[in-house]
């Protein structure tokens, strides 16, 4: 029988376990690595238009039934007061202790039907909460595509595309056969794509506006080729974005996709949860990568205030999981703040150059455009001898011509401060399969606003990305 | 109706056409980009053992019938005198003018049955020759897997694995249930893998010995997992090699996979061939990348002497395509020689650093571990103002801690000479989708032996890789 996460934790230190996971890279599966090349694909989301194929890398959880809204309002921190039909939200659940578990995009599809989309930790938590509660809801789960399908067919419930960039509206008008309805940010409406009517969410990932559309997976090729044809017809150079460029769009726009779920501590319900999670779960099989090694798993957690999600909180709700803890956390001086780290180019060159010196020590390879080598990243950020922050998700931007990462820093740190990030893992590197033997070094990072992209800072809709 | 290559060539300069192909990167499809990480995968083929999944990236052509041997001996330059059953050869066809078309590995499966495996140009040429000749042969073709399957299942006739590295024999002994028969280099025998009897070719790609095995595609998962289990059992750390590391093994061992097929010139049969090739063919849709731009497509061709294949030639055969031309070419002082170019690390850093300078010019991105950005690569190699060579296939080796490329140089060039390779394309870059806007620069290269790898030079079997 499969072990539970709780059993694993009784046998071993969980930090050691996750830091030495053998799961390999966190993969964006099902999508070709590159369609044109990752530099041009990055340029296109800023300068022309891109199609992101999001059909594969996210879980989908459907919650239906008379208690659907009450249940989800209990599980997430969000204010549900204004959650009308045809809206979407950035759904954030926390533990009773107030630690972020993850986040999904949640769509209200019908009076009593919601679908949530994102990484596994939030899916697992929703399913667990439905299983232990007395809610009149039916929950179904469509997990992300296999990371290494090895030539086998992939089946999902829905295709999911995002079309985005300055020229996106020209394409929508063409596929829709006329002007597209004015859709407010994070609202859903229906548009035509060829012979199909599809749901469309007004969204935008790297700064520029766009639409996220979805429908039955069987329609995927038809929708994709119809959009591509329309782009050709209106003379727009639309780029399909491959899996290599895809994950880097967030370093420009400022969303941290991979906080470590804060579920490894706590008794009662939390212990039950860890007994419910098997050894194959994201929480038990996933990995922590980076220079930060702490015996205390809680040192890797973040709270919603630190990620800029504080203003989502539905304080008026009678109760939701974590409300008491968040009430105490609110405004605490120990809360860190989200920033972008701009990596010093000279130091980056030092790291790369070390991999061109036969017989000498090498620093951890910086893979381009996505240097992350674990499900969750935690690189120490130092001010002198003091750790003042944690770098949590990185990527190279050809648009900005630099490496960037997102993370959190102490309140004392200011934009413009130059800090030192420790790059690579101690003791020659962990046993993760994604790690080659290497030595640690430091890379200077300049603390910068989030989102980093000037475009994203000025053109992005009013949301967590720009709230501070 | 599809255009033919000949029609395309009547409408446009073929060099311009191929240099601006929109086909994108030449992809190693169907295999995950990384299983562990590409540095460790490279280390494993030298230090422990790797499994290469070769099931997807090559065409297979089966030639059967009473005339099979006579036909193939006519099409290829090789001596067929010693082509007994249970042997394989490195099969090389040339044009009547003596230019290399490509190369396959050819296996004699039965008295009158051969299978050849490799890139499309050789497949197409074999099929064409069978179609125009009076040979009593049946030819069937299983093309390589789709480059971007987009979640659809892939079907091939055969799986094909190569297991290689210093520890490979321990695994074979385990899967075979006893010592493996002594198989000579490029000979085939049968071994057991679990419940299956499989054909095994003694081969080795990056220097160390190994076996290439194949069988029905339906057996792929069974064979793969049986080998992986055996590796675990004997305590060998076997690495699966992902598509990113895969293509770089050849820069260590010295085989050039992608000479431009010399089929764009010549009348008579060559013109017929170009009329037979459609616009979708590798020859018409593929791409030339690199700094070398010549109006004359023949300047991209190579002959078998230049690639080190001269000693394959079956001079005693009454006739074969290209015999007269090769007779004249033999020993010509204009024949270039194959070498490895070791890229200067400082100059490589200059190129990379230019992609960290916002607002300034950038040189062509060097993608790791595989910087090639076309089906065929042609970078100019200069000695002062004189072009003395052409760099044809590149890759970074973590084993050697350097970028290497393979190519040809004039006879006057000596091992140890430091030359300048022009890196990037003129005029801001071609219109290939694999090319971002960039400026040209130079990278010093030191001329080095082929194969570069000391291991490959000393341990590889007696073949073209070590013949000079």
Automatic annotation (TrEMBL), chains A, B:
<dbReference type="Pfam" id="PF01571">
    <property type="entry name" value="GCV_T"/>
</dbReference>
<feature type="region of interest" description="Disordered">
    <location>
        <begin position="448"/>
        <end position="468"/>
    </location>
</feature>
<dbReference type="InterPro" id="IPR028896">
    <property type="entry name" value="GcvT/YgfZ/DmdA"/>
</dbReference>
<feature type="compositionally biased region" description="Polar residues">
    <location>
        <begin position="450"/>
        <end position="461"/>
    </location>
</feature>
<dbReference type="InterPro" id="IPR027266">
    <property type="entry name" value="TrmE/GcvT-like"/>
</dbReference>
<feature type="domain" description="GCVT N-terminal">
    <location>
        <begin position="34"/>
        <end position="255"/>
    </location>
</feature>
<dbReference type="InterPro" id="IPR006222">
    <property type="entry name" value="GCVT_N"/>
</dbReference>
<protein>
    <recommendedName>
        <fullName>GCVT N-terminal domain-containing protein</fullName>
    </recommendedName>
</protein>
